[in-house]
């Protein structure tokens, strides 16, 4: 693929990231109860996915490297989910 | 590449402990966390997020240029990213100074303007979380600036050593991702 098309893709991803930033800041000014936390974390996950897939070029990596990245997400999620399960069911 | 991802996994778990702490405070004492979070400087945090996202774009473009052996653009883009990272730290220092004057930041003497212990704990977590992140930023800026310098004086030949640029770029992007989560967790708890 040409240099220009590759650069254009990265710039489009950056524009999407900035849009998500605007959305998360705007969302914090509305009182949505638990919705605020879901929105904040949901947007952060979307941003992280964009950064991992395009900026950290996971889209071009081998399956082994992708497994290392996915494994990290799985372990950290396991820790946070089990902590929540404990705290919320006391 | 795999080794770098495994190192980054250990970094994620390091910050993961802090996020686990934030999650615990938030679930057990939602009102106090929201009250403390609402007093942070949302717009400075947003500006810093924008700086970091933009610096990540420059690093991604630099990796692309390095792959193609474009020496000068790669060095310029890496320098630009390091500059934006430095801008982040300057803005963070301004923010810390404001917070010390407002009595929001623990550990700097003077009055501390929070009555409840949970709000104090939240601000401790804020200081440790953002401080640890700033330490990573400092290392990252040194790495990017060092890369730009070595590419500039041809001691890092491109595209032969492009993988070095890519691996350093991964570190920078991960520090960006950590901030992407710190921002809503610390500043936007509502």
The gyration radius over C-alpha positions of chain B equals 19 Å
**N- and C-termini, Cα separation of chain B:** 39 Å
In angstroms, what is the radius of gyration of chain A? 17 Å
Count of distinct structural domains of chain A: 2
Count of spatially separate domains of chain B: 1
Q: What's the mean pLDDT score of chain A?
A: 95
Tell me the CATH topology of chain B. Four Helix Bundle (Hemerythrin (Met), subunit A)
Q: How many extended strands of chain A?
A: 0
Q: Structural class per helix/strand content of chain A?
A: mainly alpha
Beta strand % of chain A: under 5%
- Spatial shape of chain A: flat
Low-confidence stretches of chain B: none
Oligomer: heterodimer
Q: Level of helix content of chain B? A: over 70%
Element-by-element helix/strand order of chain A: HHH
CATH homology superfamily of chain B: Cytochrome c oxidase, subunit III, four-helix bundle
Task: Give your account of this protein's structure.
The complex is a heterodimer of chains A (90) and B (190). Chain A is mostly helical and 90 residues long. Chain A is built from three helices and no strands. Chain A has two domains: 56 residues, no CATH class; 30 residues. In chain A, helix 1 packs antiparallel against helix 2. Chain A is flat. Chain B starts with a helix and ends with a helix. In chain B, helix 1 packs across helix 2, helix 1 packs parallel to helix 6 and helix 4 packs antiparallel against helix 5. Helix content of chain B is 81%, strand content 0%. Chain B has a single domain, classed as Four Helix Bundle (Hemerythrin (Met), subunit A). At the A-B interface, helix 1, helix 2 and helix 3 of A face helix 1, helix 3 and helix 6 of B.
Give a quick summary of the entry:
By secondary structure, chain A is an all-alpha fold. Helix content of chain A is 81%, strand content 0%. Chain B has 6 helices and no strands.
């Amino acid at each position: 693929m040409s240099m220009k098309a590759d650069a254009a893709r990265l710039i489009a991803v950056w524009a999407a990231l900035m849009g998500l930033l605007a959305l998360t800041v705007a969302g914090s000014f509305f009182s949505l109860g638990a919705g605020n936390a879901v929105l904040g974390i949901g947007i952060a996950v979307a941003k992280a996915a964009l950064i991992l897939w395009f900026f950290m070029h996971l889209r071009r990596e081998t399956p082994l490297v992708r497994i290392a990245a996915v494994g990290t997400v799985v372990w950290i999620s396991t820790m946070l989910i089990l902590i929540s399960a404990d705290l919320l069911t006391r | 590449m795999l080794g770098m991802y495994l190192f980054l996994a250990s970094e994620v778990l390091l910050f993961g402990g802090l996020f686990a702490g934030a999650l615990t405070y938030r679930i057990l004492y939602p009102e106090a966390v929201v009250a403390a979070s609402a007093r942070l400087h949302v717009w400075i945090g947003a500006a810093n997020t924008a700086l970091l996202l933009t610096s990540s774009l420059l690093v991604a473009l630099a990796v692309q240029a390095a792959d193609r052996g474009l020496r000068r653009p790669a060095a310029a883009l890496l320098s630009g990213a390091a500059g934006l990272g430095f801008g982040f730290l300057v803005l963070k220092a301004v923010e810390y100074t404001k917070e010390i004057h407002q009595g929001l930041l623990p550990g700097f003497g003077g009055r501390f303007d929070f009555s409840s212990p949970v709000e104090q704990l939240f601000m401790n977590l804020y200081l440790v979380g953002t401080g640890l992140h700033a330490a990573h930023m400092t290392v990252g800026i040194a790495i990017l600036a060092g890369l730009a310098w070595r590419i500039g004086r041809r001691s890092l030949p491109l595209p032969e050593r492009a993988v070095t640029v890519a691996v350093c770029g991964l570190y920078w992007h991960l520090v960006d991702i950590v901030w992407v989560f710190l921002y809503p967790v610390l500043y936007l708890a509502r």
